[in-house]
Amino acid sequence: MKHPFFALLLLLILIVNISCGTCVPQRITRVSINSIKTKQKKELKHEEIEYLESVLAVAGNIDKPPDYSWSHKFDIVSEKCGGRWLYNKEGYFSKLNYFMKPSYRILEPTEFNRKLLDLDME
Fold it and tell me: Structure pTM?
């Protein structure tokens, strides 16, 4: 390679992306949820965003989610780890990227689904 600096930079970017496995969205300012099945969209209110942050703060970090079909897309605008996240009603929550990391398991998915997902979005 002609430019070893660029090779090192690329390697550093790859390492940073892989090591983001413990990143949790923090200081969330906006969230929209899209149902993959019905294509319906919902914008979360301030109280719902606070609930989402509290749930993610205690969610269990997992290495890799099972091969589930995702039910919802969460578009999160936040100070840290925003972007598109995928969710399955069984409680799996993963950042959409090549490695599907970070990934979390929400402790009480039934309550989470009831509070944030409208019945008509299922």
Answer: 0.78
Dist. CA 69–CA 101, nearest whole Å: 16
Count: domains in the chain: 1
Distances (CA, A) of 47 to 29, 30, 54: 11, 11, 11
Q: How many CA atoms lie within 13 A of 43 on its CB side?
A: 5
Q: How far apart are CA 114 and CA 8, in angstroms?
A: 47
Domain enclosing residue 83, as ranges: 22-121
The CATH code of the domain that includes 117 is 3.30.1490
Quick check: 29 pLDDT over 90? yes
Is pLDDT of 76 > 80? yes
10 Å CB burial of residue 42 (0-12, 13-18, 19+) is: middle
Band of pLDDT at residue 18, cut at 50, 70 and 90: very low
